[in-house]
Design goal:
25% helix; 15 helices; DUF1553 domain-containing protein; elongated; five-stranded antiparallel beta sheet; DUF1553; Galactose-bd-like_sf; FA58C; Jelly Rolls
């Protein structure tokens, strides 16, 4: 039924912050802005640092121009899961980079003095070299060498320049791992090297150890200023953000700016706006004469067009999407050559979508549209998937060690106050959270063309399916009126559907199956009723007696059909073996709940208390997740009716779970019913039933001490509601004398006459 009910909005909601607290928040925000301004001279501009990274996994087939595998790999090491140092999800620290290795490293059999792999950055200039490897095993070499090969030919050694010698059993900081595992080393600062395009970095086997490893190598562009002294880790930028990214660049004259995407976090790339700034002016706007072109655009979607890339409007509904899965480029041609100093872009500035985000990209400029120069990109950004605490650790952008002592001390004091103010602001902005729901008036409902939420068609009024009824509600009908009309139709005397379903369920509960054997499907896909006139008569009886369920219960239980014997009739079996025509009461096994409750009632320990907390059939072990173990010992707290037993999804009670209990994760119209050897064996040998057999024997001994014949008669009355025959009495007494009373009680509690309705 469409648009019958009003919507309910719920979720974590913050309580309002008091006015006095809001004033203090504004004061803190003003002070933080002032401190950041004063700290600007001390800020290390990580945006200007560029990285060239080459991973050892880049070219398994040895086809990449940046990586040459000189000797056949012996294998790969995989970092273990977890957040420990060197593990796959190691988040890093203020002095250690997070694990950027991809979780895997290469290894070779160690051959002393022999080059194993060559990294070829193909760059010119001064770069700080960051090395990483696989560590954690005693077999790794303790003295491998990293050599800068000036001519790029590993066969000639006279131009080799050693840049580092490392112990690959240890982390990059020199500490020894606490466990034996395939760990990532972290980054080792090998100092600053001057590169030429033909240079290669060689990994050369050491004199000790049987294995040599290799992993990610970074070259970080530097300026050889005093601020480029040794650092604890590479100065990466924060990860790409779906909402807004700023690329700060050295001023450059250009007319063409191209944004090329090589990979995204999912599907084809999307940008809602590409802004190019000259000073404070966005010169990329179409209204300023800039022209946009692209490699491709997604067809058929009016909200994702090329023209949206520079229209000055933000959000997914005004964006460009490439028609290439995971890649593509967008280009802005400025009206004339212009000096630009900043580029800003985002996937969705409104913050509603975080898919299709470019994570591997380059931004290039050209004055002619043919000769391109890279000015920014993703090579110096942390991975998008790193956790928030990693970002905080990675975004330390102030340092003072290169300054005079007095100036450095002043800067450190400003930074300490900034951190304190930011902490105070975070505490002030944190309000109490409540999980609250708010009933909202129902909004308009529309037919959606082909299910597309943005392709709304005509409004659909609140109503029921036309084949059933017309509720005669207007589109502005309030919620209470909608609910009232729906309830009136469901319980209307002119609506036989509700009553027929209810009385069929009652019949099913008493006989094991309904007059309609598909209780949730009375339509053409279900099974027709065996006695349609009886079903309609019972439905009318329910309506005529003010929907009294007790009246229908009495009718069924006092009927001759219910009171029939379950004895088979050979002639009837030939005609109707399944007893569809109700010529006898259909025998069936009890469900799990009445079996358990009957056993407890017979032994005299059933707790009939109504309501209150339930009981559990499991012992709960609380770890990262809750583990449920079947109980092995039972007491009075477990002897309540089974309806009060707490249900655990995907877990079954160890004793009665085999008796076709439905899983708590699903709902069923009727239970399946099976008879298996496991049911009998599990019930006969379970600790629960052995305990109940002893309690049954104790009850019989209390009521008739020493009188075995009286005990047998009482046991038959409690279990079968009848006295024993003379032969049953005689055989039972002999059994008790031979096997004792608990064994006799155990046999009765497992008998078919107790477990089946005849």
């Amino acid at each position: 039924m469409q648009a019958i009910f009003a919507g309910v909005r719920h979720g974590d909601r913050s309580l309002p912050i008091p006015a006095s607290q809001q004033k203090e928040i504004r004061q803190k925000q003003t002070r933080i802005a002032k401190l950041k301004s004063e700290l600007e001279p001390y800020r290390r501009r990580t945006e200007s640092h560029r990285f060239v990274s080459i991973d050892d996994q880049l070219s398994p087939e040895n086809t990449s121009p940046r990586l040459e595998v000189l000797q056949t790999r012996a294998g790969f090491g995989a970092n273990p899961a977890g957040t420990d140092p060197g593990a796959k999800d190691d988040p890093g620290s203020p002095t250690r980079s997070p694990n950027l290795s991809g979780g895997k490293y290469s290894w070779w059999k160690n051959e002393p003095g022999k080059p194993l792999v060559a990294w070829k950055p193909g760059q010119t200039g001064d770069y700080r070299l960051w090395l990483s490897w696989g560590c954690g095993y005693e077999s790794h070499s303790t003295d491998v060498r990293y050599v800068l090969d000036r001519d790029g030919n590993p066969q000639t050694t006279d131009d080799w320049q050693e840049v580092a010698q490392v112990d690959q059993q240890r982390f990059a900081d020199g500490t020894k791992p606490a466990r034996r595992a395939a760990l990532w080393s972290g980054f080792h600062d090998a100092g600053i090297v001057t590169l030429e395009p033909q240079n290669a970095l060689l990994l050369v086997g050491g004199k000790h150890g049987t294995a040599v490893t290799a992993d990610l190598i970074l070259w970080e562009s530097v300026t050889l200023s005093p601020s480029d002294q040794s650092l604890p880790k590479p100065a990466f930028r924060k990860p790409v953000q779906p909402t807004h990214n700023v690329e700060r660049i050295s001023p450059v004259e250009t007319r063409f700016v191209r944004f090329t995407v090589h990979a995204t976090n999912s599907s084809a790339p999307c940008l809602d706006e590409l802004e190019i700034f000259s000073g404070g002016q966005n010169v990329a706007l179409a209204s300023a004469g800039a022209k946009a072109t692209c490699s491709s655009a997604l067809p058929g979607y009016p909200i994702h067009k090329l023209e949206h890339i520079n229209d000055g409007k933000y959000g997914n509904s005004r964006s460009w999407i490439s028609h290439e899965n995971g890649g593509g480029w967008i280009q802005i041609e400025l009206p004339q050559t212009t000096t630009i100093d900043r580029i800003e872009w985002g996937r969705d500035r409104e913050g509603r979508y975080s898919d299709r985000v470019p994570v591997d990209y380059v931004i290039e400029v050209s004055e002619t549209g043919t000769d391109w120069q890279t000015i920014a990109g993703s090579s110096d950004r942390l991975p998008l998937t790193l956790p928030a605490d990693t970002l905080q650790a990675a975004s330390t952008t102030y340092h003072f060690d290169h300054l005079p002592a007095k100036e450095a001390q002043a800067g450190k004091q400003l930074l300490a106050e900034l951190k304190q103010q930011q902490g105070d602001l975070k505490r002030l902005q944190k309000s109490d959270i409540v999980y609250a729901g708010k009933f909202m008036p129902p909004g308009p409902t529309h037919r959606l063309y082909r299910g597309e939420p943005l392709a709304k068609r005509e409004q659909v009024p609140p109503n029921a399916p036309e084949i059933f009824t017309d509720l005669k509600l207007s589109t502005t009908a309030p919620e209470n009126e909608r609910r009232k009309r729906l309830a009136e139709w469901i319980a209307s005397p002119e609506n036989p559907l509700t009553a027929r379903v209810i009385v069929n369920r009652l019949w099913q509960f008493h006989f094991g199956k309904g007059l309609v054997t598909t209780p949730s499907d009375f339509g053409a896909g279900g099974v027709p009723p065996t006695h349609p006139e009886l079903l309609d008569w019972l439905a009318q009886e329910l309506i005529a007696h003010d929907w009294s369920l007790k009246h229908i219960h009495r009718l069924i239980l006092n009927s001759a059909t219910y009171q029939q014997s379950g004895q088979p009739n050979p002639r009837a079996l030939k005609v109707d073996a399944a007893s569809q025509l109700w010529w006898r009461f259909p025998p069936r096994r009890l469900e799990a709940e009445p079996i358990r409750d009957s056993i407890l009632a017979v032994t005299g320990v059933l707790d009939l208390k109504m309501g209150g907390p339930g009981f559990s059939a499991f012992e709960v072990e609380a770890e990262n997740v809750r583990h449920y173990h079947p109980k092995k010992n039972y007491g009075p707290a477990d002897w309540r009716r089974m309806i009060y037993m707490t249900k655990v999804r995907m877990e079954q009670d160890s004793v009665f779970g085999l008796f076709d209990c439905p899983d708590a994760a699903t709902s069923v119209a009727k239970r399946s019913r099976s008879t298996t050897p496991l049911q009998a064996l599990n019930l006969f040998n379970s600790r629960f039933l052995l305990q109940q057999a002893d309690l049954f024997a104790q009850r019989l001994e209390r009521e008739h001490p020493g009188d075995q014949r009286a005990q047998v008669k009482r046991a038959f009355e409690l279990c079968y509601s009848r006295p024993p025959t003379e032969s049953e009495l005689s055989d039972s007494v002999q059994f008790i004398q031979a096997e004792k009373l608990p064994a006799f009680c155990r046999a009765l509690l497992n008998s078919n006459e107790l477990l089946f309705i005849q």
